[in-house]
Write a structure and sequence with these properties.
This is Glyoxylate reductase. This protein has about 350 residues and is an alpha/beta fold. The chain folds into two domains: about 120 residues, 3-Layer(aba) Sandwich (Rossmann fold), CATH 3.40.50; about 200 residues, 3-Layer(aba) Sandwich (Rossmann fold). Helix content is about 30%, strand content about 15%. The protein has twelve helices and twelve strands. The longest helix has 20 residues. The protein is globular, with a radius of gyration of 22 Å. The two termini are about 25 Å apart. Bound molecules: (2R)-2,3-dihydroxypropanoic acid.
Length: about 350
């Protein structure tokens, strides 16, 4: 790189990625000092000035204000995430700024967690552990109907969004003996654009597009939300969707919180209109106070957005983000780039 590029990185990174960044001699790196606390917005706006590249987390909003603060040298945003709903892609496109992201690194980790949340929701894992921790086991000796829940084998699993993560989840569900899968993408009723793992060709179980969300909600024993957050998907799972679900069905959200209307979910759980829920994400996260009504729902398991939190995956996401940043500065091919 002939010139020195200023880059701003909004977190301390895991070893290998940090080293990769520090080893590039032509970079002037400004880095938020914390590993676990998000960069303050005012810090980011102040430091972005004159930057050629920004490496950001999903908690950093990339919008007109930030791009204006950075100025005309900005060439690349590298997002440490698969989701890009925190980025105003229209503004990037207008200013010809490239966007890197990490869609392939986290597929397995998130699919694994999706299985965990599904089984926790069906088998009442949160509720069961809660009772033991509270010392309630002596009051509930083994009995034939104690803590029973629906079984994954024989289920119809419905996918709202059927990209890599959805398909990797389905691949894991098939050996559990599920009966069929339905999926809904932005093109209802049409076959999935990509068959990431050859499952659609394989034909082990029927895997079919749903005609609309109503059909998906009505037929599924498990609904997995894996779609991007867009104006069309915000609150897609609300009162009407939940009302169409089976009483024995569970809802699992590993995508973005606002796809589900939390108040509607709390109401559905209160009325036992659905069996349970497993959530990795929720609206307004991480600001969920201890008295939030969702936390009072025994049949809802909520974990703090840890879908991709395996050591291996986070290392890979960090390394790929740095590679994307450097490729963007040099005008080279990124590991993964959003086509704006
Ligand atoms: C992402 O990368 O968008 C995920 O939500 C992180 O787990």
């Amino acid at each position: 790189m002939p010139q020195k590029f200023k880059v701003v990185v909004t977190r301390q990174l895991i070893d290998e990625a940090q080293k990769l960044l520090e080893d590039v001699s032509d970079l002037d790196v400004v880095q938020w000092p914390s590993e676990d606390q998000p960069a303050e917005r005012s810090w980011l706006l102040d430091n972005a000035q004159g930057a050629s590249g920004l490496l950001v987390m999903l908690s950093d909003k990339v919008d007109q204000e930030l791009l204006d603060a950075a100025g005309n040298d900005l060439k690349v945003i590298a997002s440490f995430s698969v989701g890009t709903d925190h980025v105003d892609t229209a503004v990037l496109r207008k200013r010809n700024i490239r966007l890197g992201y990490t869609p392939t690194a986290l597929t397995d980790a998130v699919a694994d967690l999706t299985i965990m949340l599904t089984l926790m929701a069906q088998r009442r894992g949160g509720e069961a552990i809660g009772k033991v921790i509270k010392g309630e086991w002596p009051k509930m000796p083994w009995s034939p109907l104690l803590m029973t829940g629906p079984q994954i084998g024989g289920s119809t699993v419905g996918f709202l969004g059927f990209g890599r993560i959805g398909q990797a989840t389905l691949k894991r569900f098939i050996p559990f003996g599920i009966k069929r899968a339905r999926y809904l993408t932005s093109k209802p009723g049409q076959p999935a654009k990509e068959d990431h793992f050859g499952l659609l060709k394989e034909g082990k179980i029927p895997i079919e597009p749903a005609q609309n969300w109503e059909q998906l909600a009505r037929e599924s024993d498990v609904v997995i939300i894996g779609c991007a957050l867009t104006p069309d998907t915000k609150h897609l799972v609300g009162k009407d969707f939940l009302a169409k679900m089976k009483k024995t069905a569970v809802l699992v959200n590993i995508a973005r919180g606002p796809v589900v209307d939390t108040d509607a979910l709390v109401a559905a759980l209160d009325k036992e209109a659905i069996f349970g829920a497993g959530l990795d994400v929720i609206e307004n996260e991480p600001n969920i106070p201890a008295d939030h009504p969702i936390l009072k729902q025994p049949r809802c398991v909520l974990v703090p957005h840890i879908g991709s939190a395996t050591i291996e995956t986070r290392e890979q996401m960090a390394t790929e983000s740095v590679k994307n940043l450097l490729a963007g500065l040099k005008g080279e091919a990124m590991v993964n780039e959003v086509q704006l």
